[in-house]
Design goal:
The chain is an alpha/beta fold. Strand 6 (157-162), helix 7 (166-183) and strand 7 form a beta-alpha-beta unit. Helix 7 crosses helix 8 (200-218). Helices cover 41% and strands 21% of the residues. It is globular, with a radius of gyration of 18 Å. It has one domain: 3-Layer(aba) Sandwich (Rossmann fold). The protein has helices at 21-34, 51-55, 63-67, 73-76, 116-130, 146-154, 166-183, 200-218, 240-246, 251-254, 259-275, and strands at 8-14, 39-43, 78-84, 94-102, 135-142, 157-162, 187-195, 228-236. The protein contains 11 helices and 8 strands. The protein has an 8-stranded mixed β-sheet with strand order 3-4-2-5-1-6-7-8, sandwiched between helices.
């Protein structure tokens, strides 16, 4: 009997805020959609969600509303079109198929914790959504809170967004350590964002090498299984990114030929390669 189709669940996390995690999630979804994949982005930061703001959409309902029975699931899903714009300024935008988002809640104090009932409701909801898409990207909140750990536990793949800054590296390691100890996640993919210089791939490799060294030194010493840290890709520092964010646009629409846009397209290809790894039978 053929196994039931299920979306590849990818939890996108970060040790600290301000590293571009939501930007990566939104534009990674656009890059996957552009190549023909069906994608849903769940804004998993249930208390301080901002994916809808970044994309310039005004949802009528949120994931919080769905969980509390205020609306049906279909009423909370929002379609985000992906438009490619020609290099010449006279060319009009050409719409292609887009992706869906499930907005989270913002300014909701009780959303930072999950009751046992809420956990089961979320699992049921994600199971229902999983039959509709190929990729389910969970844009989790920064840090290692209860909601983040829940989405990390149910994900097929963990992606940690980090920058080369020392504070980001320290918090990324702390996140990886907690994911290994409390969730048993021993395979982690890293995206290095905001990499300056002429050789961003080399700089990104140095970041991942550093994380591997720290993980092998400290995690093994306390008996935790060694974590395998993989470099998924590097996004160069690019002025097109803050401009697109200020305009509430996807990079594919605002700057299709920008270095960051091209880097995220390559990231989407790498993520697809990871996703071809067979999932364990449920």
């Amino acid at each position: 009997m053929e196994s039931e189709r299920r979306a590849r669940r990818v939890a996108i996390v970060s040790g600290k805020g301000g590293v571009g995690k939501t930007m990566v999630a939104a534009n990674l979804a656009a890059a996957l959609a552009k190549t023909g994949h069906s994608v849903l982005v769940v804004d998993s930061d249930l208390g301080l969600a901002n994916l809808d703001v970044m994309l310039g959409v005004q949802p009528s309902y949120t994931l919080h509303d769905v969980l509390h029975g205020a609306c049906a699931l279909k009423d909370a899903l929002v379609r985000v079109p992906v438009c490619t714009r020609g290099v010449a300024s006279t060319e009009e935008a050409s719409p292609v198929d887009g992706f869906d988002i499930l907005p989270g809640g913002s300014g909701i104090r009780d959303a930072t914790t999950l009751t046992a009932s809420a956990r089961e409701d979320l699992k049921t909801l994600l199971h229902e959504l999983g039959s509709r898409y190929e990729f389910l990207l969970c844009d989790a909140g920064a840090g290692i809170g209860e909601v983040v750990l829940f989405f990390a536990q149910i994900a097929d793949d963990i992606v940690v967004v980090v920058t080369p800054e020392p504070t980001s590296l320290t918090d990324a390691y702390a996140t990886i350590k907690v994911l290994a100890r409390e969730c048993g996640r021993t395979d982690v993919h890293v995206i290095v964002n905001l990499v300056a210089g002429a050789t961003p791939e080399k700089a990104g490799g140095a970041v991942v090498s550093h994380l591997r060294q720290v993980a092998s030194r400290f995690l093994l010493s306390d008996g935790t299984t060694l974590v395998r840290i993989h470099l998924l890709g590097v996004i160069p520092s690019d002025p097109a990114v803050p401009r697109a964010i200020a305009r509430q646009q996807l990079l594919e629409s605002a700057a299709p030929t920008a270095p960051a846009t091209q880097a995220i397209a390559l990231l989407a290809d790498h993520l697809f390669d990871v996703a071809t790894t067979p999932l364990p039978q449920s």
